[in-house]
Amino acid sequence: MIRIALLASGSGTNVQAILDAHAQGKIQAEIVGVIVNVPGAAVIQRAHAAGVRCVVIPHRDYGSRAEFEQAMAQVLTQWQIDLIVLAGFMRILSAEFVQRFSGQMINIHPSLLPAYKGLHTHDRVLATGDRLHGCSIHFVTPDLDAGAVIAQSVLTVAPHESSQQLAARVNVLELQLYPRIVSWISAGRIVFLGNKPYLDGKELLTPVRFWNHG
Question: pTM of this prediction?
């Protein structure tokens, strides 16, 4: 079984979804631990409740990003991690850190990448009038939100929908999609070779898309 670490900063809803799927036997892997960079974040209690070790590495305790990332890398290396899952981890990682764990790190983003990289995705979708929105899971590369996209969950933006309503609907999709893709990687269905993702032995030229109606 592969060894997984989860990195998080806040409430930990995506972490909880993955921990629940693991507890239900849907993810055949060892979740070795959770690394949190914000002391007191709610995700810490979620990890403890699930019986998963949690290491808090406050980024503010370090004089530079390089020192903070080195502290995380030491833990990840000690844990002998195969897959790093960024689950609401609110720090931009350096190119050096990303390259150190190239092909081993995935992230979830609340848009249909490559559209709407960065922040405030829901507001931006509403401002441009796009009808389709959703979330994407991608391999992490040094360029922000630019790595190969594995899968997307898509919804139709409702007329007169607020940013908060849209965000809540996308979050529901995230909580369904992330555990599914982690389970695929754990089962060996998805691999990353030569900077390209493969699904069931075939190069993944376009993301797997799950459509949500209603």
Answer: 0.97
